[in-house]
Amino acid sequence: MPHQKRRMQPRIAKASPPMALAPLLALPLPLPLVLLPLLLLLLATIPSSIASSHSVESFTEHLLLRPLPDGRLQTSFDFHLASDSDSRAHFHLLPRSLLQLVQTHNVDEAHLSLNTGRWDYNKWGSPVRSVRHEHHRPHGNGNGHGHGHDHDAAAASSWIQVGDDDVAPGAQLWARLRHDDTPHNGTESATDPFSPPDDVARHWTDLTSSLAGLFCTSLNALDSRSTVMPNLAFHSGARESSSAASSPATTTLHAFLPSESICTENLTPLLKLLPCKGHAGLASLLNPLSLFGANFQGMAVHVVRRTPPASGWHVKLSVQAVFSPAVTRDVSNRDWSLESVFARTLQRSCPLAAQSTIRVTTPDDQGYVSEHLVDPLPARPARPSVRDHADFVDPDEDDDAREDGDERHDGDDDDDDDAAASASIPRRGASDAAWQKYWSERGEYVYDVTSLSAYSGSGSASSAGSASSASNASNASGSGGESGKAGLNIAMTWPKEQRFRYPDAIAPPRVAVSRILSGSGQQRSVLTTTVRNNDVRRAASLVYLETLPWFLQPQLHTLRTHVDADAYDDQRDAYVRFVDEVTSDPVREIVYQPSVDRQRPFVLEMRIVVPPRTTVRIQVECRRRQGRGQGRQRRMYTTSNLVELATPDFSFVYTNIIFTSTVIALFFGSTLNGFVRRFRDVVV
Fold it and tell me: Which fold does the domain 511-624 belong to in CATH?
């Protein structure tokens, strides 16, 4: 029997369904109902995977309202965003557009400031105020963010700083850039130790261009002619503590752009970086029409990337301005309110903010005492203590107070201080005048505006009729602001002050600095820098950074220092002065970088120690480069002479020409028509 070939049919292996899904597949159910258990099982595994990679982020905001001695008002907005993860793409509260930009260009720390106007240190003091940090009380915001590791670390710290100290007019940018991890790193700058490596210079150029596009500025004009590489400055600021051995090599670059100013185009991108933008929270008070009419206004952006082992991000956004309520009105009255300053009231709080506070400091009326009222008053604390107080101190005196064992930091008398503070707290049911006195003696009024419901319908009856600006101060809305009320309108008035009296003398700051350019002409001049230490007990350690354009060349061999100490009286003065404080050289270290024509500016850095109640003058001669319009006069111009001439009437000539041309055209046309025209019969 012949062998017959059989064609084998392909066999399809069928997998048996799981035991749990076998009954479902056996039933004639629709496809969506069959896939529903699988979808629920998949969704149940997602939260666990997200929780394993979730980063804790926090957002806090602070507003400082500080009456100045000359009748002006300082307003400082601070917005802090922190994260314990250095992720490149996953952010909940932190601005992704800013952090991805910083990561791309290998930036460990960057600071950008834009200011318009001049900060008067002699009248306004320091723009940064150190305050005691109050204990955090968790607020249930429903989002689960802002109460993690970074929040606990902030609560452990007893001091925070409000404001920004970069108040130079124009734009200022400095950054710490990390070197690329390449084998040839650092070989490019071996021939020029005063120039950054090529990879750092490339990242710096890309960083300035990216920030210029993000904040609508002209930072791309910061080229090598305005960029310096400081060695002493910008190395002792507020940085995250980390091991120097484990951190990679970095280079710090700094540049100024004095011609840049702040405007609405810069403020709008800044507000977009906030979680609630400018629609809720303290940022809703930033009205461009009012902000840019102030005597001084500025904004700053500070980004820090923490290095291992404490990885994460910290972003600080600052907006500060100085208003003059006593000058911009017909009547010299320094009464102010949120509505009169910003033309807005606080309508709603930001639900994503873990902490939102407004601090109103008491005025420092030097030379006379005037009664002031604040309306509405802050929410009455349940049982405050001295540790909860947020007394303002000078940032320069902060470290000295800790080192000297100031009574405010001494822990031995905490019980006595708490008892004294509790004794001064008004009793339950006390009048508004008693609470007004309590907050005034405390030195500041602290408003927790995380929830505005605490200020709904509250106000000081004694100050309700003191000023028209405070009439609606007690009409505070709820936490959401949907009720349509006037909102929280904090006001400070001086009911017994008919006209503001300018102080005869204002207490000078601890350290005062001035600089003048003297000499005959600009070819050879003397640059004099004067540093005055007004403190009677502590010496001031400073780092002086001088950046001069390439066409102005200081002669370092002419550098001179003069120490002028105040007259000392051992019977009157409560301090001891040593001879070496006056005779020793105040300049402890000098670092300079020579300039290159049309390529690099001149940089001079000095570490100076100024004794108490002493003035130090630093003088250096400068020579102006030839060919810069100084030193020789190339041209001389005489005065213009007036020559009177009989001018003919050209209009008559024009009319005559037009008339003659018209007659000739008509005559020529008729004559030509008579010669060339032919008449003939046409059959119709």
Answer: Immunoglobulin-like (2.60.40)
